[in-house]
């Protein structure tokens, strides 16, 4: 059994995830956006760990390591893209990056 | 690995090799493409000599491909596909050689596209597995898309998109019909199959045959193209590079007629019976309509494109007649059209290279300037209007003879197309070649080079060979068409209206004795 | 002989190929010699062939070269049939062709394109021989279309002249209309006889006629349509006058002596079929009589020397059709032969005049050429007398035979005779109008032109043809005048079937009647000549008076009854106009419009949809989140709903 009830974890993960989503939507700075994404990933990680414990299956914990790795890679690629964009545009305000407009 | 697999995959391998070829020298690239296509042609000649007339599918190869769904790699050649395959390999060589000077950019991709196209077309002709056929049928579009879209004329994007969308629209419905038939053959229960030979014996209910036939027929009718699905053709031809037009008119259009012969009609004979009248009418309209349209074209290529609509109408007429004479004529005429119209597009490409215009009005009186070119054009034009002694006559005559047996009135109307053909072709010849030289620029056009002549000579030789001694061709296609007829005539096909009654041959003696009431004659079978 | 026979059409083909490939390298002289030699070889073989036919037991020879088109029960081989009819034809074709080839050496002497000319001329002879030697309908069709092709090429020989090329094209297309009938007839024949071989078809014809009523009539009428195209009869005669744009020897060979007689030959060849459908024969006779008169009327007023001869040719071909129509097949072929002699002579004579006057063809600019061109004048005069039907020249014998038979035959009628006789009078008149205008009276030749007699290569063929025009008719000298009617006798085996079917028997009329009618036709011919003399020699102002008095009628005839214009407005323009309207109004507007319309619809839909993609990252993220929330919510609701 868990020392803390399961629902606490779920609510916490939900709050973290929602914060991440709002962060992505609201933030104009790309770095904040990336951090928000990180937040969402960690919310998912939290749940993976918790349920691994609940089910007694270490697969969930293993998955967290994968996610961490991917997140690190994503941060690296994302930041390098960011640097490239900054060099080109002189700004990292996402509202100015609208060349995909149809 | 049989010879057919070599024929199918050799060009694509060469094409890939060409794409990764390290050098950029033009001579190397075109030399490689020429050798590849020539080797392919020589290999295909083996089929001509090794083919046993009437032996059904030969050189058969059958491998499991996606065995779970009954999809196999099944190929074979019979009298119906033999000549079409040979035509493809020959025209590819000619298309490659004719492009030496016409194509200045992206040569590797261009020649590779031609070779990919060859693979697609030959594969479609040889496949005896419906799934495999569909794959090749669609694969073919891609190189053609690039040929028109990259190396084409001013409005090439419009033309190529139109071409692809038209074809796709038809073939997707065909895909639905294919999947339905697969389901019917046993479906996903484990013993479903895409084997064409198995499909022939499925015994699909007549009500289903109707829409299945309609779906197949639409795909093929667009490819042929039959009226009123023809408007992609003039655009595609006008914009395509000369070699692209040669392949398009010479080979790709034949796939439509071939599809009717191989798939739509024998798979769904009752469906065909239901739509026969519609197809007859559309063919006859196509013949006359295409011919009239040519009369007012101002662009040589679009004139020839419309004449193709008319000629392919004849091809369809021969198939529809459902008798040996008509079917033989139709198949032969497919070859003839490939040769004659292919040569016409080739010739137009040559003159276009010199003057960079295809407008009829920009020429006039060039016979005196380029006699060899003009004579070649005149010969091809005459073969295209079916002058006896040239290939066009043999095909057209057999088609009309056969059609006349099935539907005298329709055949008579179609024969008017032959008159109109003389009109538009000779008018074209007159406006381009005869009269005084109107534009001073035309006085310095140079005549054909040896290379250009070399691309034309095989076609000219074939024009006369088929025109004067067509037996080697007729003998190879005849027996298989006979068994084809047996397959498609399983139902009572002749339900012509009273005003257009077929005329099966009944010996007059039988008629007389029947009239005299001596014997209840049974001479009603043709 | 059988082994030699197949070389008969081969020589001209060899000549064509040699001149076609090497002519430019050889130069003019060699090209001309090769062409003449090849035709001469053919002529020599023809003589042998003729002898062989006479001595053959069955009266005919057949040679099969190879199977041509074989599929299912359809079988057509390239094979030749040599019987008296084709024997006569090959002699006429090769003989006249040879003379005209020789003539061309002189006439075309200055033309740089001589090799091309001679190769086409040889090709023509080849196809003509295929036509007359064919032993089945399909091989005949090769020759049939082939001569049309050569006609097209030779009319348009001077291709820089648009009018010439137009005329060539007109000839080909109009002939194609006739071929349309011919090919339909072949279809009908094959599906009712199960063969296209002449002898087999004729053999089965009676039983087919009995079994399928009306079929033979249809076949006959369709064949007739083909014949009217090639032989320039109403309604398809319009191409022949325009065909005069070609070099004059071509007009002589193709448009007078040989090709245009193909229709006559074809009907005679199929006499068995026509005899079994008498209605068709009546139509043949009516068309022939009408064409004879109609064309003769147009010949009266033409000012172009070749146009007069062109209409005269149409008119004479009408005679031949009339003969065929009344069942006098041998008489028709006889006239075909004599006409080949004197009409070729007339054209060559006209060519000689044109040559001498530096390509002047207008009769109003000639006159008084008699002195400067004696050979041309005298030979021309002989031909004119022959065509006018003055005894004992060839034209008299054959024409009189036709007139007599059109009256006396069971299929004949006195109206046919009357029309024929009126035509004879008109013929005599317009021919001598031509003779008097060109050769007699004051010279109206332009001052810078000096008429001179033509070179020997041109004069000798004229003389040869003049001799033939005189004696050519004697082989068919009528019995009533003490002759043996040998020609008819020779051809009898060919027309035996037809004669039996039609139950024709001569001798029901008295010899006195025949003498009477003969006298009438001679007198009428002489009157025509006399009238021409009165009008154009004695009082040259009289034609002008008549012209003024009947201006309307004169213009009608001068403009050829506006038939060309009629065909143009009723057939050609509507088709092209229809094409134009349908192309813009249907092909582009409706069909292409539908295709592009669908594409346009999709595009406008997409244009609406694309507005939602603003390119703003935060907007995209927000919609994504909302979408996920909605989807998740929907799953929750349905799962919970299901659980409950």
Task: Walk me through this protein's architecture.
The complex is a heterotrimer of chains A (102), B (526) and C (644). By secondary structure, chain A is mainly alpha-helical. Chain A has three helices and no strands. The longest helix of chain A is centred in the C-terminal third of the chain and has 31 residues, at 59-89. Chain A starts with 5 loop residues before the first helix and ends in a 13-residue tail after the last helix. In chain B, strand 1 (58-66) and strand 2 (71-77) form a beta hairpin. Chain B is globular, with a radius of gyration of 23 Å. Chain C is mainly alpha-helical. Helices cover 75% and strands 3% of the residues of chain C. Chain C is built from 27 helices and two strands. The chains are: A mainly alpha (102), B mainly alpha (526), C mainly alpha (644). At the B-C interface, helix 7, helix 12, helix 14, helix 16 and helix 17 of B face strand 1, helix 6, helix 7, helix 8 and helix 26 of C.
Structure classification of chain B = mainly alpha
Shape of chain B: globular
The helix-strand sequence of chain B is HHEEHHHHHHHHHHHHHHHHHH
Characterize the main sheet of chain A. none
- Side by side, the strands of the main sheet of chain B go 1-2
Radius of gyration of chain B: 23 Å
The description of the largest β-sheet of chain B is: 2 strands, antiparallel
